[in-house]
Amino acid sequence: MLQMRPNCECCDRDLPAEAEGAMICSFECTFCAHCVEQVLHGTCPNCGGGFSPRPTRAAALLAKYPPSTERVTRPDGCASAG
Questions:
Q1: Residue 35, SS3 per DSSP
Q2: 32-51 exposure pattern, b = at least 16 Cβ within 10 A, e = fewer
Q3: To the nearest 10°, the Cα dihedral for 2, 62, 32, 75?
Q4: Residue 81: left (phi > 0), alpha (psi -120 to 50), or beta?
Q5: Cβ neighbours of residue 21 closer than 8 Å, sequence gap 6 or more
Q6: Which of 14, 28, 45, 74 could pair covalently with 81 via S-S, beta carbons 3.0-4.6 A apart?
């Protein structure tokens, strides 16, 4: 099951499970669309892969399958990635 991390690893922007605008790589590294496009230029700084839009989770399923609450951030934001 998709972990659905709650934030962008670069800028720490909130990315709720039901919201659009989150991007993930094949390892579920999670970033906001702005950081993917403007800072990372489409390449994951953690694994070197590309990104796809993260699917949203239907509100009716959030209680049964809650998203992760663990916030993952890069120690330097994405300063060294761009």
A1: helix
A2: bbebbeebbeeebbeeeeeb
A3: -70
A4: alpha
A5: 15, 32, 33
A6: 45
* The one-letter amino acid at 72: V
- Residues 1-17: pLDDT tens digits? 889 999 999 999 999 99
Residue-range domains of the chain with CATH:
1-66 (3.30.40)
> What torsion do the CA atoms of 82, 76, 37, 26 make, to the nearest 10 degrees?
110
Question: Dihedral sign, CA of 10, 79, 75, 49?
Answer: positive
pTM greater than 0.70: yes
